[in-house]
Amino acid sequence: MGSEPSGRASRPIRVAVVGATGAVGTAMLDLLAKRDFPASEIVPFASARSAGKVLPNGMTVQGIADDTIQGFDVAIFSAGGAISREWAPKFAAAGAVVVDNSSAFRMDDHVPLVVAEVNPDELAHASKGIVANPNCTTMAIMLPLKALHDAFGLRSFVASSYQAAGGAGQSGMDELAEQVPSFLKQRDRLVDDGASVLAGATHSIHAAPLAFNVIPWLGSEAGDGYSDEEMKMVFESRKILGLPELGVTPTCVRVPVMVGHAIQVRATFEREPDLDVARAALEAFPGVVVDDVPTPVKYAGKDEVAVGRLRPDLQDPKALNLFVVGDNLLKGAALNTVQLAELLHARGLVGAGAPTAS
User: Fold this and answer.
1) Residue 352 in this model has a pLDDT that exceeds 70
2) pLDDT band at 48 (very low <50, low <70, confident <90, very high)
3) Is 14 annotated as contributing to ligand binding?
4) Coil/strand/helix, residue 115
5) Percent of the chain residues past pLDDT 70, beyond the cut
6) Is 127 annotated as a binding residue?
7) Rounded to 5 degrees, what are φ and ψ at 54?
8) What share of the chain is helix, strand, coil (3-state, %, to 5)?
9) Do residues 352 and 323 lie in contact, with contact meaning Cβ atoms separated by under 8 Å?
10) Mean pLDDT of the chain
11) Which one from 125, 136, 252, 345 is the annotated catalytic residue?
């Protein structure tokens, strides 16, 4: 990742966490503590209705306002696109480098879209004072695909995701949990009259009742029958890997898992991949573990992205199939955000060394 400058990199910094009461924001605060982030102060921010709330870690939530956002070196955001669009530029103008977990700035040409292990050098190009965190599904596959791209030259991939309820936040997990007891009481009807069970269930977060079910739609319509969640995978993968012509065919599916996204990937390369070389490349890549049968529940709460079912394609000798699993709240969101803040600090890109916001 390059040499680390002295001086500024060793200075404790002041950190804002915006969206601190949500599932990802809570994870961000936990990670900042567990990873001994070099902060002189960490201030949690949330909506006005949460202002004054004392969190389990003893911190008091601050309401976000023009007079409360001054004096920060780094601001990490997980409060949704609308909040990010309004407040990220204001934090940047006040001198902070913003690491944003929403989709608000990901495709902005002047905002780096960064996975810590994949393209960290892009952090130096944050001319707006904002760095974007990728979508959680894209994030998980970027690590193994980067490892394989370096070995064989990635040309295209087909990805089918199996995304956890937690991808929709705490409310997504709550809706799934609330449906399970009722569905269990109707176990026999799930076998012979599932439609009637679904008709009696309420849902507002997922596109259909999720308990004991699989929903082949999440996100909003993006044209040609694809959702915006699927198109994020297309555009973000190209930007992160620096492959503007990369062919991507995505399908995103919601499954009744609390936390942990899984993605089946068929990747096609310029050079015919050797399975032993591919496995060695994955095992050597930071943040990746190889597990023959990875499952999302097994890796819930773990930092690493797990890769399994690595096998040659039956039709194309230049293609490999692999199954990827990652905790969408950790590496998919909070962990990468904190890692980017750590890199910004280590490289002297905060405070006096920060890129100039325009």
Assistant:
1) no
2) confident
3) no
4) coil
5) 95
6) no
7) -95, 120
8) 35, 20, 40
9) no
10) 94
11) 136
Distance of CA 161 to the CA centre of its chain: 14
| The pair of three-digit structure tokens given for residue 32, joined into one six-digit string | 């900042």
Sign of CA dihedral 227, 229, 127, 122: negative
Reported confidence tier of residue 151, pLDDT bands at 50, 70, 90: very high
Q: 213-244: buried (b, 16+ CB within 10 Å) or exposed (e) per residue?
A: bebebbbeeeeeebbebbbbbbbbbbbbbebe
May I ask the CATH class of domain 8-134+334-353?
A: alpha beta
The domain segmentation of the chain, as residue ranges, is: 8-134+334-353, 137-164+214-327
49 marked among binding-site residues: yes
Q: At what angle do helices 136-152 and 228-241 cross, to 10 degrees?
A: 40
CA distances from 102 to 14, 106, 186, 194 (A): 22, 8, 38, 36
**Residues linked to residue 60 through DSSP beta bridges, in sequence order:** 54
Active site residue 261: yes
125 noted as active-site residue: no
- Which pair of tokens denotes residue 224? 């040609």
Q: How many residues does the chain have?
A: 358
Angle at 232 between CA 26 and CA 79, to 5 degrees: 25
Q: What does the pLDDT look like over 279-330, one tens digit per residue?
A: 999 999 999 999 999 999 999 999 999 999 999 999 999 999 999 999 999 9
Q: Which one of 149, 206, 252, 261 is the catalytic residue?
A: 261
Read off the pLDDT of residues 7-19 as tens digits, 9 standing for 90 and up.
445 578 999 999 9
Q: In the CATH scheme, what architecture does the domain 137-164+214-327 have? A: 2-Layer Sandwich (3.30)
Q: What is the pLDDT of residues 73-117, one digit of tens each?
A: 999 999 999 999 999 999 999 999 999 999 999 999 999 999 999
Q: Which percentage of the chain shows pLDDT scores above 90?
A: 92
